[in-house]
Amino acid sequence: MHFYFIIFSTIFALLISYLRYKYQYWELLGVPQLKMNYFFGNLSRIKTIHKTELLHEAYQEFRGKAKLVGTYIFTKPIIIALDLDIVKSVLIKDFNKFTDRFEQRKTVVNVVHQHLFRVEGTRWRPLRTKLTPTSTSAKMKYMFPTLLTVAQQLGEAFSKQLTKTS
């Protein structure tokens, strides 16, 4: 009986040591990090609140204090950029270094998920090459009145639907 207790205690101690080591990643780099649970990282609260609320709380807690905040999904380190200049650098200037920003299942073939922020590097580069010329400031100014009209029509359609259902 004591043998099993010693084995279990040793395995548990090794697991805790491993998790402590993994959860020091941002601390060793000097990046502030969110408080986390040793077994779930920062996902322990994801059951009770939406992930965008968790990100908003991180932003509110570290706004003005840090440009980056570290967090974890299980033991995988994730960085959250709070500074607008860093966000612009990642999404515009250094975009070719950050092509795979989100991890998704390979089997999912959903049209909604096939946009520039979600597709992987092999599909992202040609898609960005095709879409970049459509996003010039002149073309955006030309499209704005049409987008405004469609947005107003969509708002009216939502209002009608809400009055029907209430």
From TrEMBL:
GO cellular component annotations of the record: endoplasmic reticulum membrane
The protein's required cofactor(s) are namely:
heme
Question: Where is the protein localized?
Answer: Endoplasmic reticulum membrane; Microsome membrane
Q: What is its main location?
A: endoplasmic reticulum
Q: Does the keyword Membrane apply?
A: yes
- Is RNA-binding among this UniProt entry's keywords? no
**Membrane topology recorded in Swiss-Prot or TrEMBL:** Peripheral membrane protein
Provide the GO MF annotations for this entry: heme binding; iron ion binding; monooxygenase activity; oxidoreductase activity, acting on paired donors, with incorporation or reduction of molecular oxygen
Q: Which domain of life is it from?
A: Eukaryota
Q: Which UniProt keywords apply?
A: Endoplasmic reticulum, Heme, Iron, Membrane, Metal-binding, Microsome, Monooxygenase, Oxidoreductase
Q: Which family does it belong to?
A: Belongs to the cytochrome P450 family.
This one is known as Cytochrome P450 6a22
Q: Which organism is it from?
A: Bactrocera latifrons (Malaysian fruit fly)
